[in-house]
Write a structure and sequence with these properties.
Blueprint (H helix, E strand, L loop, with lengths): L4 H16 L32 H6 L4 H4 L9 E11 L2 E5 L9 E6 L2 E2 L11 H13 L3 E5 L14 E8 L7 E2 H7 L4 E2 L8 H13 L19 E2 L2 H6 L8 E12 L2 E8 L4 E8 L6 H6 L5 E11 L4 E5 L15 E4 L7 E2 L2 H6 L1 E6 L2 E6 H4 L4 E14 L5 E7 L2 E7 L3 E2 L2 E2 L9 E11 L2 E6 L5 E3 L1
Parallel strand pairs: 3-6, 9-10, 12-14, 16-19, 21-25
Antiparallel strand pairs: 1-2, 1-5, 2-3, 4-8, 5-6, 6-7, 10-11, 10-13, 11-12, 13-14, 13-15, 17-18, 19-20, 19-24, 20-21, 22-23, 24-25, 24-26
């Protein structure tokens, strides 16, 4: 009997272990990781716990579908898109009861996608296109706050939201913030401290384990790895002095080609403005390079920023095109064709004196509207021509007024029906102009290049 006692004790212990422990439902979710007891989301919105890197790499989980919108303790609103800005910023149309302007500028909670609206970063364009593709095809879109209020982000100009979308009418809502994380197209930004923090943490761990996009260790196929600073025209125009002497690369639409140079502009959805620059290509471009700079083409421009003393403004020069190396990151590149110039309507009074506030990477700053509009296309109506000066080369300078504001209009030598146009005939007339903004004698002016740019009342 004494020899059988140890064995019997082991049998009883085993029966207790396997018989007394409650059996888990094999379909039940693992207990989620809670980072802040005060912000514990409702059970219906609880995601799975973050997997280990090994588990994430072997079995991917769709965390964007695993969470559901919370209960009645958050603000929610079905919306439509007004404009896409980048991967984590979208402007939505909302009822005026939420925003008097009817527009809510949304910043996605818990994530930070690479830049595509200032200095361009790796995978920034991919993140921006991902957000645009998902929301453009969505049957419905809903935004949700992290609590019962629509809260500002750190800039004070955008609202922090969770973005949900249904791909089809009968489908379930997916969380786009989390979907960007699980695809490796965003970094965590205070993710764990928010309502769906557990799912955010799990999604980014999985993306790292699966080595997706930002965490792949591979080059971004949509990013240029040359020696130029990749940026947007907004960033270049708003910080032009800091880029003096530097090689830059940006995209924009060619609006005017004249005098061995072009005007290039690009629209920025965040500020709802056009930004532009002039580029001097000189006499060194081949036919293929010149074709890229045709009016209406959207192009990638690479060149060096310099201050043009004679013109009193900054420009980009040193443009080149090596036909034998079309993928050279220093090359001009045509991206599309058939694009139209903005020709934004502007009043004489605003052109002469208005100031605008613009948020940049360095923070908000005040700019003269005429400076921000430099090298973009505008239209201005109701200018009365007070005097006309015609230079020996045929160019004319019109001194105009409208509503007590003074505006200078420069005309290139124009032809109407094949005949040379006499600018002196405009004296005393009221005109509308479609022109590009540039500088003359350290002052902004409206520069008209074709007869179609002048309408006489």
């Amino acid at each position: 009997m004494k020899k059988l006692a140890p064995a019997l004790a082991l049998i009883i212990l085993a029966l207790c272990i396997f018989g007394c422990t409650p059996q888990k439902d094999k379909d039940a979710l693992p207990t989620p990781v809670q980072t802040d007891a005060a912000q514990t989301p409702p059970v219906s919105s609880m995601p799975e716990a973050a997997p280990s890197p090994a588990a994430a790499a072997s079995e991917s989980i769709d965390y964007a579908a695993s969470v559901k919108p919370s209960g009645a303790d958050t603000a929610k609103q079905e919306v439509t898109v007004k404009s896409f800005v980048d991967g984590d910023t979208v402007h939505f149309l909302v009822p005026e009861s939420i925003m008097p302007s009817g527009v809510l500028k949304a910043r996605f909670i818990g994530i930070d996608t690479p830049e595509s609206t200032g200095k361009i970063e790796e995978y920034g364009k991919a993140a921006s296109e991902f957000t645009k593709e998902k929301l453009s095809r969505a049957h419905s879109i809903m935004i949700e706050s992290d609590d019962g209020n629509w809260d500002f982000d750190s800039t004070g100009g955008r609202y922090l939201v969770w973005v949900w979308y249904k791909a089809e009418k009968a489908g379930e809502y997916r969380n786009l913030n989390i979907e960007l994380l699980q695809n490796g197209l965003a970094r965590a930004y205070s993710s764990a401290n928010n309502r769906y923090g557990s799912a955010c943490t799990a999604a980014i761990n999985q993306a790292k384990a699966n080595k997706l996009n930002l965490y792949s260790g591979e080059k971004d196929p949509d990013f240029y790895y040359g020696d130029a600073v990749e940026l947007t025209l907004k960033e270049l125009r708003c910080s032009i002095e800091s880029y003096n002497g530097k090689k830059v690369a940006f995209e924009g639409v060619i609006t005017i080609n004249s005098g061995n140079g072009v005007f290039i502009e690009d629209y920025d959805a965040e500020t709802d403005r056009y930004y532009g620059i002039s580029a001097y290509y000189g006499y060194g471009l081949s036919g293929a390079g010149l074709d890229i700079l045709s009016v209406g083409n959207r192009a990638r421009i690479v060149g060096t920023v310099q201050y043009y003393e004679a013109g009193g403004c900054y420009q980009v020069s040193g443009l080149s095109y090596r036909q034998m190396k079309p993928d050279d990151p220093n090359n001009l590149q045509k991206l599309s064709e058939g694009n139209a110039a903005g020709y934004v309507s502007i009043s004489a009074d605003d052109f002469a004196s208005a100031m605008v506030s613009i948020e940049t990477e360095a923070g908000a700053a005040e700019y003269k509207l005429s400076d921000i509009a430099m090298n973009t296309t505008v239209e201005m109506d109701g200018l009365t021509v007070q005097s006309v000066y015609v230079a020996e080369n045929g160019c004319a300078t019109l001194s105009c007024t409208a509503d007590d504001a003074e505006v200078t209009v420069r005309l290139e030598p124009l032809k109407v029906n094949g005949e040379a146009f006499d600018p002196n005939t405009l004296s005393g007339k009221t005109i509308d102009v479609r022109a590009a903004v540039d500088m003359y004698d350290n002052a902004p002016q409206l520069h008209v290049f074709t007869a179609e740019g002048i309408s006489i009342h």
